[in-house]
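User: Need the bound-state model for adenosine monophosphate:
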Amino acid sequence: MYDSAKRSLREFEPIRPGQLWTYNCGPTVYDYQHIGNLYSYLAADVVRRTFEYFGFSTKHVMNITDAGHLVDDSNADARGEDKIALSARRENVDPLVIAERYTQQFFEDRKKLNILEPHIVPKATEHIPAMIALIERLIAKGHAYVAADGVYFDTSTFPGYGTRLNPEPPDTRQAGARVEVNPNKRNTFDFALWRKAKPEDLQQWDSPWGRGNPGWHIECSAMSMKYLGETFDLHSGGEDHLFPHHECEIAQSEAATGKPFAHYWMHTHFLKLDSAKMSKSTGGFMRLSDIEAKGFDPLAFRLLSLGTSYRKGLDFTWESLEAAQNRLNKWRGVIGDAYQATGGRATAPRDEDEIRVAFAAAIADDFNTAAALAQAEAAIGHAATGDDETKRRALGLLFDMDRVLGLSIKESARKAAALPEEAKRLLAEREDARKNQDFKRSDELRDDLWKRFGIRVKDTKDGQRWERDGRKGA
Ligand code: AMP
Ligand code: ZN
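Assistant: Bound-state model below.
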């Protein structure tokens, strides 16, 4: 995998054999997540699924930022109001109501996209003591200092600050940009670990430094280390986290522990709309529900996202979504037909099967989902044109690949497989029998449909209804 810290492809070596322990920076829940945010969680989902495909067990932590993230976070001096507080004021409700609402919405969207639930989802507001403990540790070691308006990390005590993920030091990168440096700080790039509360702050907690609230960066260090230990395998987030968020996480974590923080770093490139960055704070963003409102299946968006590398990002257009939807529909049709033709019997793939080998090689190559889709397409070809034996093998391959692709291929196969003609005939005959009050015949037909086709029939006040493998009909 490509490691953003080493800026090169590296063979993955886990800390514990056969296990991946990973932290994925979660959302700031002050608004809906846009499809750009969702794109980055799809990338993290593919990572987790890939490791599980290869037999790893995973421990996947993703935080919820429900406090401490200020509106302008692009520099060492985060500025402006807290994002959650701003929404809370706008809507005149408690900040935690805002956080809860958008957290739930986020999880609904994830579910629609078949993004696996992380094993642990810590909320920042429930981990304030862990953050305070970490800040105390940094002060005790001389890496942080108390100033008039809060506690700061002293970047002069951490050689190479800001250059672990970024080739150029922060001052070169920032040259030309006019930055007002907070006079309470010792060095330009020192960043807040704890901010003293202003009376109007909606969220504030007691601390050894008076009432206040945590900095966004310390949240992730405290929560990741609490659940994954001081050193863990993989840390991921979007490309905007490269600086300052992840540089700050590295500095404060390693300064506190004296150990390496994460062994690998992964950054997803952005989804762009009309070539512009999609951003929650500047508005003009699109939600999953906007896609659904136009009649698209959320999984078409998943398929579209898989078609490009997370290291290139995604140029979103309606035409490309439409193409993905058509591709998905075509796949569903082929898979449904093959499923029906073979009586739903797929053959488990053999390890040496060419398509399987190529698929595994693709995802093992820095999660190359685009190349992996080409293998799925090859299997679709076999499912469409092969004899029954070939169809069964193709289905087995597709079900196997779907452990990574997450397109609900098995479910759609069952759904798409139409009822056999004979079953349709029996259903019609039973309907007639009921109309003619021939209940003996209608009961026989009910048993027949169950025994021969696995179809359950129920009588409702609106007439006969049937169900098979979760698929329902009248
Ligand atoms: P936020 O809720 O703003 O903290 O962002 C949640 C996640 O979405 C972070 O990992 C961001 O890096 C990522 N992200 C934000 N905007 C985009 C975008 N346009 N494309 C891809 N990922 C994004
Ligand atoms: Zn984070």
